[in-house]
Write a structure and sequence with these properties.
This protein is mostly helical and 114 residues long. The chain has one domain. The protein is 61% helix and 0% strand. It is built from five helices and no strands. Helix 4 packs across helix 5. The chain is globular and about 50 Å long.
Length: 114
């Protein structure tokens, strides 16, 4: 039974990685950038229209959760989705990231944040 659970987990991991790769390519970034830890969050901030220094906020406990929600909202808006979709991305990312990546959502560059 443990092998079945492990295979399901690996399948979900591969699906999420492929989804983030596809989101990066939809936004005009190279897909390989999604595979590099920390750097992928910096690129995700750029895609969402947030400043790069926000990356530091991901290293502060409890603040990182709030920042992740704000970035998810901005990312969803950058692809023409609403706040409800963004909340789905936060709590059910393994479902909503593939929907964003492989669905009909198109990237519109957000206005740069101050």
């Amino acid at each position: 039974m443990d092998i079945v659970v492990a295979l399901i987990q690996v399948g979900i991991l591969v699906l999420v990685l492929a989804s983030i790769w596809r989101i990066f390519t939809k936004a005009g970034e190279a897909g390989w950038k999604s595979l590099i830890p920390i750097y992928n969050m910096y690129i995700m901030l750029r895609i969402a229209g947030r400043p790069g220094w926000w990356l530091l906020l991901f290293f502060i406990p409890f603040v990182n959760f709030v920042i992740a929600i704000l970035v998810a909202i901005d990312l969803a808006k950058a692809f023409g989705k609403g706040v409800g979709f963004a909340i789905g991305m936060v709590f059910l990312g393994f479902i909503f990231y593939p929907l964003l990546a492989f669905g009909d959502a198109t990237y519109t560059r957000p206005a740069p944040a101050a």
